[in-house]
Amino acid sequence: MPDAALLETRGLKRHFAVRGLLNRRIGTLRALDGVDLAVEAGEVLGIVGESGCGKSTLGKTIMGIHQPTEGEVRFAGVRVAAPGHPRPKSLRARLQYVYQDPGASLDPSWTLRRSMHEPLVIHTDLSRGQREERIREIIAAVGLPVTHLDLYPHEISGGQQRRIGLARILCLGPRLVILDEPTSGLDVSVQAAVLALFRELRERFGLTYLFISHDLAVVRSMCDRVAVMYLGRVVEIAPAAELFAAPRHPYTRALLAAAPRIGGPRVTENFTLQGEPPDPSEIPAGCRFRGRCPLAAPVCAEEPALDFTGPHGAACWRWREAARLPSAASSS
């Protein structure tokens, strides 16, 4: 991991109890099962994978919404999350989370002005006049007119709600922002405007992003590096351009083959991934992808660690064989 990492996770696990009749515990769902990541200041790290792979759980555990079962989270060198370890209040404003549906975090009975004031009242000692001045500055920065502050959440569009969600956290001066599916449900034109806003705000405020998304095209255009998750673990991580051009893990290759491209071959021609991921409460021993992998071999009965060459790592015993196969990117 980089020595100057702004954010680090070390052996991070988050398990949930599976309960049956009379609320008895009958199993454990391993949503996160040992995640080591480092995010450098100023970069955008993308997190991708199938639904249920642990992307959002990772973001919420880093943020403190979920407490880790094992491992720890460090922010700017300070431990901010670990089992039984309270989160330092002084760092809460510096690490912020933007939900997939920002409208759900806005009180429908409050004007946008009141919603904007709320985090400043909680986290700062600013006077009302000082809060209002900062709110007006940030509202302008996210491209909304000041007159919108007198509206209610139902009176603005989904794209504008995302801008308000960003404005609420930018008022606190965060260093790292976790974006959870920030463009889902948006029209393509609105999506482009929101992505352009993310880039502009990153430069203007010196932000670092953890960018959680299932949209590979968006991740490719926005992120400096990409981590691919499968069943609670990172199975590949690399600079974005390298990962999309030369994926190493068979699962990553299958994800890229499933992404349709204008002028490219039909998805059904390249897509070879079969079956569904195993139940996360009954993860098989060894490589957790081997039951769906076309390159599975006896060695895969042992779970692989991330094998790095330079900045590119893959948790696969046979990634060299996989890398020699023609990729979805090269066939388009």
Automatic annotation (TrEMBL):
Membrane topology: Peripheral membrane protein
Transport recorded as keyword: yes
Spans through the membrane: none
Top-rank taxon, per record: Bacteria
GO molecular function ontology, one term from the record: ATP binding
InterPro entries cross-referenced by the UniProt entry: AAA+_ATPase, ABC_transp_ATP-bind, ABC_transporter-like_ATP-bd, ABC_transporter-like_CS, Oligopep_ABC_C, P-loop_NTPase
Domain ABC transporter: 7-256
Any one biological process term the GO annotation gives: transmembrane transport
GO CC terms in record: plasma membrane
UniProt subcellular location: Cell inner membrane
Keywords noted in UniProt: ATP-binding, Nucleotide-binding, Transport
Chief localization: membrane
Keyword tRNA-binding (UniProt): no
One Pfam family here: oligo_HPY
Family assignment from sequence similarity: Belongs to the ABC transporter superfamily.
The protein's name: Oligopeptide/dipeptide ABC transporter ATP-binding protein
Native organism: Muricoccus pecuniae
